[in-house]
Amino acid sequence: MLLLCAVVMVGCGAHHANPVANVPPPPEADSSASTGNVPAASSPVVEPGAVVPPTAKVIYTETGWASWYGPSYNKRKAANGEVYDMNGMTAAHRTLPLNSIARVTNLKTGHSELLRITDRGPFVNDRIIDLSRTAAQKLDVYRPGTAKVKIEVLQSPAPIDRGGRWCIQIGAFKNSEDAAALKEKLARRYRAAKVLQFTSPIGQDWLRVRVTEDDKQRAQALMQETQTDTPMFLVRLD
Questions:
Q1: In CATH, what number is assigned to the domain containing residue 135?
Q2: 237: how many CB neighbours lie within 10 A of its CB?
Q3: In this structure, is residue 109 part of a structural domain?
Q4: Over its length of 238 residues, how does the chain's per-residue pLDDT go in tens digits?
Q5: For the chain, how many structural domains are there in total?
């Protein structure tokens, strides 16, 4: 009888034991997941390099129109050598040193974001900055397409008001023959300049003219002397 009771008690204890959970492993990170998702307030995620101390002072200010660029340029190499990710918090500017960090504020809505300058553009006369798609969404520029913004540079790897390597970018041409004709004309007139003809990801032909030593004053002089109906832009290469 004592043996039988002991067996029954062991059986009851086994019946009420806590079951061992069969927990599956966590899902693998999705390499295609957006890096620009809005982070939870408790664990903010900041664009690599877009970090400045709270005491950082504004070293350059500019106000004008912003636009954004996305799918046609996504996963292509940006001007700073990185692969452009339209889901990152980055922007393109024609003259700010690459990898500068700027606070961009939508003057209508008051929304501000820290962005890193990784690319060159926009190549439209009335615009001063091109935002990544996610930056445009956060700054209320995505749906309207453009918005007036204030750019405040807080950090720059090089002086903004001096130095740098410069060129002229001319485009977009209606057809490649017009681009080739101007390229030949400029190459004959400015033998020391290097003229490159290239096609953008959206199929437009452009010219990039680099003067001796990529000097800014030489580039500005060449720009003033060149006659063309196609827009020209002074662009910093570094």
A1: 2.40.40.10
A2: 13
A3: yes
A4: 444 444 334 444 443 333 332 332 333 333 333 333 333 333 334 455 577 888 899 999 999 999 999 999 999 999 999 999 999 999 999 999 999 999 999 999 999 999 999 999 999 999 999 999 999 999 999 999 999 999 999 999 999 999 999 999 999 998 999 999 999 999 999 999 999 999 999 899 999 999 999 999 999 999 999 989 999 999 999 9
A5: 2
d(CA 195, CA 191): 10
The owner of tokens 């057809």 is: 175
Residue 5 is assigned to a structural domain of this protein: no
Q: Do 132 and 175 have their domain in common?
A: no
143 in the same domain as 67: yes
Residues 183 and 138 in one domain: no
Phi and psi torsions of 139, nearest 5°: -100, 10
The strand pairing partners of 208, in sequence order, are 169, 196
How many angstroms separate the Cα of 26 from the Cα of each of 7, 23, 29, 32, 42?
40, 9, 9, 17, 21
Residue 3 lies in a domain: no
Which residue type, as a one-letter code, is found at position 236?
R
Three-state DSSP state, 125: coil
pTM over the 0.85 mark: no
Range of the domain at 206: 166-236
Annotate 109-126 with b (16+ C-beta within 10 A) or e (fewer). Answer: eeeebbbbbbbbbbbeee
